[in-house]
Each structure stands twice: as C-alpha cells, then as structure tokens.
Amino acid sequence: MTTFSPARAVPVRRVQWRAGRLPEVAAWAVLVVVAAFAVAPGLFSDLSPIAIDPAGAMRGPGAAHWFGTDQLGRDQFTRVVHGTRPSLLIGLGATVLAVAGGALIGLLAVVGMRYAEQVLMRLVDILLSLPTMLLALLVITVLGEGSGNVMFAIAIAFIPGYARIVRAEALVVVRSGYVEAARALGLRQSVLVVRHVLPNALGPLLVLATVGFGTALIAASGLSFLGFGAEPPSPEWGVMLSEGRNYLSTAWWLGVFPGGAMTLTVIAVNIVGRAAQNRFTRRAPR
Amino acid sequence: MIAVLIRRAASALAVLLGAATLAFAALELIPGDKVAALLGPATSASEQVKAQIRAEYGFDRPIVVQYLHYLGRLVRGDLGDSYQLSRPVAGLLAEQLWPTAQLALAAIALAVALAVLSAVVTAGRRAGRAVATAWELAAVSLPSFWLGILLLTVFSFQLGMFPVVGGEGISALVLPAVTLALPIAGMLAQVLREGLEAALAQPFAVTARARGLSHTAVRVRHTLRHATVPLATLTGWLTGSLLGGAVLVETVFGRPGVGALTLQAVSNKDMPVVIGVVLLSAVVFVVISAVVDALYAVVDPRLKAG
C-alpha cells in the first residue's frame, strides 16, 4: 500500500491558489497604472491635454495618436491620462465624505437616545427610497453646478446607505462581550464608541466603501457627462464622452476610450473590493 | 392581517410625507430669495407679480403655516407651475410619464429574463460560476451612459439597425432598454444565482433530483421559487431607481421622458419640476413596494401566515 504523500498535494493547491488570485493581481496592476496616471500624467505623455491642433483633427487611432485625436486635434491618449485625476478625485472625495457622514449618523443612532435613533433611521429610510441619482440632482439644483457641488451631491446621496451599514455593524459590536466588559469597567459612552465600537465596525465599512467608490466614480462621471460637474476643456472622462457623443458617426474612438478607461478602473476597484470582502467574511464568520 | 395592512399603509404614508418634507426643505435651503428661485434666474418680473407669488405661496407667513399650506396643495394634486415652461408640473409629469414607463418596464423585463436565464444555466456548475461571475462583474461595472454610446456606435451608426435619435415604436426602444437593463441584470443575476445555489444545497433539491428530475427541471420547478423572494425585493427597489438611470439613458438616446424633463429642470433650476419628480419617485417607490409585498404572499405561502 502506498502511503499518501502530502508533499505531492501541496503544489497542486498552490497552483489553484494562484489561478484564483489572477484577476485580483491583474486588478491591482490596473489600479497601480491608474494611480500613476492620476499622480504624474506628464510621465506618460509629453503632449498637452488642451493644446489645439486643427490640422490634425479627427485622426483615427494609430502609432502617432494611440487613441486618435478629437475635433480640435487634441491627442485622446493624453487627454485620457490627464483626465484620470479629475475623474477619480470627485468620486474619491464623495466616498470619503459619505463614509464619514454615514459613520457619524450610524453611530449616533446606536448610542443616542431611543427616539433620536427612530428619527435618524426614519430619515435614512426615506432617503433610501429615492434613487441616488435623483437625490444627487436635487442637491445640485439647490447648491448649483460645479465639481465641488457634484462631490457633495454624491456624498449626500450615498450617506443613507453607509449609515444603515454602520448602524448594523455597530449594533453587533455593541452587543458583544468585550463592549459589555468595557462598560462594566466604567468607561464613558463617548470613549466606548471611539475606542471600541468604531474600530470594530470600521473594517466591514471600509471594504464596502471600496465597492462604493466604484459606484461613486460612475455617478460622478455621469453627472459631468450631463454637464453639471467638470467643464470643457477639462479632460474629465464624463466630459470627454459628452463631447465625443456628437461625433459618433465619424469618430468612434472618441466614444470608446474615455469610457473604456472608466469601466476598466471600476472593474478593477470592484474585483479588489470583492476579494477583500471575501477575505473579511471568511476571517470573521457571523 | 388588518393590523399588517394598517402598518404598511402608515409606513407608505411616512415615506410620502418624508419625501414631501425633504422637497419643502430643499426649497427652503435654496440660497437667496425664494420668489426669485420660483420665478427663475432669467425673468425680470415686476414687483406686483412678486407680491402676488408671495401671497399665493404665503411666504410672508410663519414657516409652519407655509409647510401646512404646501402639504394641502400636494394633497389636492397641485405640484405648482414650472416657471421654465409656465405650465402645471402635474400635467408635465403626466405627459412625460408614458415614454419613461415604457422604457423602464422593457428594461426591467429584459433584466429579469437575462438574470433568470443566466442563473438557471450557471448556478451550481463550476464552469458556469466563472462565466457568470465575469459577466455579472462587467455588467455592474459598466457606466450606463458609456454602454449607450457603445451600442449607438455599433448598432446605429455602423450597422444602421436602429434609429440614432428619438424615434417611435419598438425599434427605438431596443437600445435604450438594453442600456438600462444590463447593469441591473448583472445585480439581479448575482442575487438570484446565490439564492439558487443555497436552495440547491437543501434536502428538497436533492430529493427532487433523486426522484429522477433533470438538473434543469430541479432548477426551474423547485429552487427558482425559493430564490424568487430576494429577487422580487431587489427588482422592486431597482425599478424605483430606474427613474434616476433614465436621466442618463434618455439623454444619450435623445428620448423624451421624465428623465429628459428632469435634466432640463435641473439645468434651468426649475425647482417645482425637480420637486415634482422627487415626489413622483416616492409614489412609484410606495406603489412598487406594495406590489412586491403582495407578490411575496403568492410566491411564498409561508409568509402569508406571518
């Protein structure tokens, strides 16, 4: 009888592990490139994203212009690279604001008086019943247009979702043994929340915020596409698509590349977010 | 049963009242003179007209009185006038509702069909899972406005199969409906597939398989029903959110509808119209929630007892 050798089983497992991780590795690679575009666009193209060259307008993609040129002769590859920063910043800012606002409301609902919780969560329910896009548009009508206001609008539209998640997470933490122990030790309510409840609810929140960042990116570009956020000649991807939309019959590349960059970024963000989510739920099963 | 109905009606009313209050607060929050905001940025109305509006809306009275007055007008179905188009908002919404409803219904039907097909074919199969995960991920990551531009480029401009802008009839509905449906289909397929996989692992599915039913028959006849409750919840919620998505899709395809009306209103700071759309969306949400609740009882008899 041959004995089972564990040494043989190990490599097989390792190969499987690697194949399963392939999308995540690719996603991280995409995100590194995107981050580099955002931080130092000048490294990837020495052309200007806004310099006009009427003689070279409407060229198709080729060796000279990888993504072609637009109706004003601007190099589309340069514009996509330079557009990374404005496209990502609004979504990133909105996500940070929404997570902070959601954490505040969610925690207040947990530790506050009973009727404060009722009022806050009722408000959250009402806001959740409205489409986020519509809520963002309502805020823009009140505040006015512009990149900063679009960021606020998306943040406000996303706060209710985060508030509900934080509350759910915080309720679990509040009922756990160590919080009870800390309370029994005589810790003040505020210390309890900041030192124990918040850090423990933060992990799942940050993981969800990663996926939420992808959604915020799409919303931000969508609002810029509609003409409420960044303005031409900014190479923001939504603005580029909105301009390129007028030339779809003759210049397909104007509609393809900015949206492709956006979609690829969001797919990468979602893959990384989900992988983190899986790892998180596996480590702390509930 | 009656207690349940009363509780449902109360929560529906709470949502409507909440949305109305939110809209009222939004109007209050607009910086500057409210009369000017209602009249629009471009008008140079005489002091007499302004005084008339002030009296009509009761802006000179305490805010609580104004609020009650506003609620009273809403109850009577008076959403105010659009200053941009100088017409009652309720009439404008009623006119634009049908094209958007067509679009939304076509999109939701398509999304559910795609999701069911994908989930039934791929659930519980190793290879299927990889394919399903990939397309679901791509679908939820696609910005709808870009998807619309891609479809227009390929099918309208290159192949000439569908009209480029607006148009009427089925052929004009296909591309916008697909655009609106695909991201939703991705979400639905994901939830449905997970539900199916959970149901397939249960003893009754094994029993059905042991009775000699084929893989597909087990999925379609037995486990699909179990996975329908979360699907119905999500579908209801997503249908409500389509009103937001319609703004982008109607813009890309140059279609008339509530979305196009909203875009125009937000650009012109036409607050009465924007508020009207928000209230409409709250009503849609309440109606759909009621329909989904009724569906639960049909799909899952266990819920009727509780």
Give your account of this protein's structure.
The complex is a heterodimer of chains A (286) and B (306). With 286 residues, chain A is an all-alpha fold. Chain A has one domain (76-283): Orthogonal Bundle (MetI-like fold), CATH 1.10.3720. Chain A is built from 9 helices and no strands. In chain A, helix 2 packs antiparallel against helix 7, helix 7 runs parallel beside helix 8 (237-244) and helix 8 runs antiparallel to helix 9 (253-283). Helices cover 79% and strands 1% of the residues of chain B. A two-stranded antiparallel ribbon of chain B has the order 1-2. At the A-B interface, helix 3, helix 4, helix 7, helix 8 and helix 9 of A face helix 1, helix 6, helix 7, helix 11 and helix 12 of B.
CATH topology of the largest domain in chain B, by name, is MetI-like fold
Average of pLDDT of chain B: 85
| CATH architecture descriptor name of chain A | Orthogonal Bundle
Number of strands of chain B: 2
The largest sheet of chain A is: none
Helical percentage of chain B: over 70%
Number of helices of chain A: 9
Q: From the alpha-carbon coordinates, what is the Rg of chain A to the nearest angstrom?
A: 24 Å
Shape of chain A: elongated
Approximately how much beta-strand content do the residues of chain B carry? under 5%
User: How many E-type strands of chain A?
Assistant: 0
CATH 4th-level superfamily of the largest domain in chain B: MetI-like
Cα shape of chain B = flat
* Oligomeric composition of the shown chains: heterodimer
CATH C-level category of the largest domain in chain B = Mainly Alpha
Q: What is the CATH superfamily label of chain A?
A: MetI-like
- N-to-C CA distance of chain A: 43 Å
Radius of gyration of chain B from CA coordinates: 24 Å
